Amino acid sequence: IIGITLVIISSVLVAIHHFSQVGSEKEALKIVEEIKSVIPETEIGIPDGRVDAEMPVMQISGNDFIGYMEIPEYDKSLPIYSEWSKYKVADFPCRLKGSMYDGTLIIGSVENPGQLDVAKLIAGGQEINIVDMTGLKYKYKVTDIYMTKDVSTEKLSAIGVDLVIFIRSHFAKDYMVVCCDTRS
Question: Which of 53, 92, 160, 177 could form a Cys-Cys staple with 102, CB 3.0–4.6 A?
């Protein structure tokens, strides 16, 4: 009886987890479409070392976003939450710190379905785009990928590239760090 009860409970938990991830993916796609509908037509930009590197924030569905991320190779688009939140990172990539305008942007995410589930497929030379709320699109090329357990702000800031994306694995033991540059 205990064994059957445990199997039923675990099946229910797996089903709940699956449906919440499907819901997160649909919500992310809905938000990206809403962002696209309210921002101007996109134009290409490059980091220019602005003194005021503050990125515009827009509230959508009760959440603040700085724009969205595109990975064209895998037809993936995800909204980027405006600030770090250990609660929001399961739903959306979150900006840990920095700005795309001065080449200091650091984004955290997870490799759950509906999030950066294509993380293990990302390879050097591939393109990742960030579009801000003004329609400015920065095109980055992946220059390096490595695994680590240390994703402290200090370590990620010291990498010295224009964009750093760190992605927590399913089991939260390791992080994949994707380094990108506009100069590649």
Answer: 53
